[in-house]
Amino acid sequence: MMSPVPAAAPDLLPPAVQRGNIWRLAVAQALAGANSVVVYATGAIIGSTLAPSPVLATLPISLFVVGMATSILPVGKIARRYGRRAAFQTGSGAGILTGLLAAAAVILGWFWLFCLATFFGGFYAAVVLSFRFAAADGVAPKARPRALSLVMAGGIAAGVVGPQLVSSTMDLWPVYRFAVTFLMQAAVAAVAGVILSGVRVPAPTAAEQAGGRPLAVIVAQPRFIVAAACGAVSYMLMNFLMTAAPLAMHLCGLPQTAANLGLQWHVIAMYAPSFITGRLIVRFGAVRLSVIGLLLIGVASVIGLGGETDLHFWGMLIMLGLGWNFGFLGASAMVLDTHTPDEKTRVQSVNDFIVFGVMVVGSFSSGGILSTYGWASVLMLSFLPLALVLILLTVLAVRRAAD
């Protein structure tokens, strides 16, 4: 059992503990992040094989997002009441269950069991995304963006581990393609859980359990509204396009290995900038970096509209990853400025609930739009939410300049 950590100051952890937490969270991010990559790389392909209708091909990935959205508030409550470590271990259990259920679904040919597995995978992914906020616990305010981004940088390894896990195991049991992949994914989740057991954070205080100001007051802040909108659009569009891309590549006659490689570089692009994103936020501000991120997502759609070769898909996925990094981490840094330490788990949970709730819309719609109207329509639709949130960011920047 974890005991409360004596801090050097009321709100700060000792430097050695801070470094240890960041290292463990970054490694766990690398391993646990492979869960999402495996689901995205295989979900639509397995879905198209097992689903009773082609329209349901991307339903497993949509339910993955539903699992993320519906688990955010319960996970936040667990963290607020029992500590972040308890939430981490609950997520690790869900990650192991994901792999075991998915492998069984592939062997048995049960589409709805596979959907249940990806739902638990979404639960796990939601817990993994809370690592970024956990890295800021007990860290001085000026150092929080860097701590947050360093943990997210662990996702670079996930961009290699996930696709390579798929490519190296998908045909080991030819009769049941991808079954071994998910068994290995369960093993990786178990290893990540062991690493997370060493994370040391202060136990929740009575004030933190009380929750601080009413949520209505917090979420009414213009900065929170913009932060949630930016995070939601960045993540929704990343999910919207990435969900459809592997199936679109399949429909264009490109091999599974091309889709795996594209997703690998996409995930690397999502996390590689994290080594410098924290510094960029400190130097230029979270709002400006978020604007750049959203513009890069727009560039990704333009690249995708340029053609349907493997290079077009890869270029689109790489630019999409870069845009997500700047947009989402910029939004996350803005969230850190909207709450007190006692309000952190509650406010962060509400923010992520909004983000993943919006993602559900994009995830559920992408497969139907792709199958009905084609890949170009999926790309064209991305420009509308981009325009809306860029207007919000511009208004916030003008208001802050006026103040």
TrEMBL record:
SUPFAM superfamilies the record matches: MFS general substrate transporter
Residue ranges of the TM segments: 21-43, 55-75, 87-105, 111-135, 147-166, 178-203, 224-251, 263-282, 289-307, 313-337, 349-369, 375-398
UniProt-recorded Gene Ontology molecular function terms: transmembrane transporter activity
Alphabetized Pfam families for the sequence: MFS_1
Keyword ATP-binding annotated: no
Domain Major facilitator superfamily (MFS) profile: 215-403
UniProt-listed PROSITE patterns: MFS
Keywords, comma-separated and alphabetical: Membrane, Transmembrane, Transmembrane helix
Matches recorded under InterPro entries: MFS, MFS_dom, MFS_trans_sf
Protein name as annotated: MFS family permease
